[in-house]
Amino acid sequence: MDYWKAHRTLKKARKLVRGSAESGYAELPTYLHMIRKANPGTLTRLEVDENQRFKYLFLAFGASINGFPYMRKVIVVDGTFLKEKYKGTLLTASAHDGNFQIFPIAFAVVDTENNKSWEWFFRQLSNVDDEGLAIISDRHKAIAKAIGKVYPMASRGVCTYHLYKNILQRFRGRDAFRLVKKAANAYRLTDFETAFEEIKTMNPSLHRYLEKADVQKWTRVHFPGERYNITTTNIDESMNKALSEARSLPNAGLLDAVRLMMTRWFSDRRNDAMSMKTTLTRGVEKLLEERVAYARTLTVQSIDLHQSQVTSKTSLHVVNLTEKTCSCRRFDLEKLPCAHAIAAAEASKGKTSTISQCHRYFLSNYLYNSYSTSVMPKDDAIPVQDAVKDKVCLPPVVHQPPGRPKKSRIKSVLEKAVEKKRPRKQHACSRCHLVGHNCKTCPSAI
After folding, report:
1. What integer is the mean pLDDT of 120-146?
2. Is position 436 within any domain?
3. Residue pLDDT, tens place only, 346-361
């Protein structure tokens, strides 16, 4: 059997198992109707052109809409290509739950990433929530235009990972790249200005590029809204990876694969939240445990009823537990107590607990409420009205290039470098020989 005969055989077998790409479009009106019936509060929208050919599709499950009020108001949006016969692009919107897990909000299938498709997507998304949002994305111009029209009051940030990729492709020098990361992740204005001035001295063209990229969009310290610790679109990239196989399915099959993934995620995470015995989520507890070890090496001096001075060998910071602020600004931006705040809380001798200093979004009961609504499959026993059955959705007209369809994209320079990078060696403590700390912060020495 030659190559092309094997390829045609594979296509025929997939069509028998999955259904044809054409049937995937024809089934959409009925499928979306049945999903709405099975999941109250679900938002769907199917748009066709004057010839009844598919144009746009939007889906936001009622479970996601009910759970989003318990999320930090940071939405990450991204697009990825589909692999089926008629191609297209899958747009996604996600958030981060209080346990640092992906929380899917909405999905859309469009022809390509352009001004019209992104504006249409954000118009539908605005029905979910449109107040006090921070939206993180790559530097796609169409996304910026659409956000400006639909969410004029939202704060927009760009993904620092995509910014780093662009810098690696355009500029050389590891020292300059290190300084860019330092400037982007700085919590204090003085730390940012020091790193930014070093970049200007070392590479003026890179400095101009970063200024043009708008420091309000890619830096922590200048961001006008609340983005907490979310600086990249990694959560959407991870979800695209989770849906990698499903992106080869016809559209109705793709949506059901999304539904199945969300059914599993919501069920597992709801059960996990119920099993948590702590007030804070497991992820936050682990993060704070790492900070406690360092906090116990710090010296605390009370200033007044609300403020304390926290010092180490190299730094001095002022913590206000009433206003939940610290001069290091980590506490202010992440809404989780930094090591200085933990030290000040422990020095208060029970007057203030570390738990009370955490934002409510990180509480385990908030996590449970996020996933309290189940994502249900369609019920084939429910009759479908003739008006829904009679709706026509034809596949779009697309140009099929010759040869075998591509299933993967060309990897960037940064992605190739990460693949070749050796895993970082974990250094053990010289006192107890465990990893995660050194001899100065060793619990056995305290």
Report:
1. 90
2. no
3. 888 767 788 888 999 9
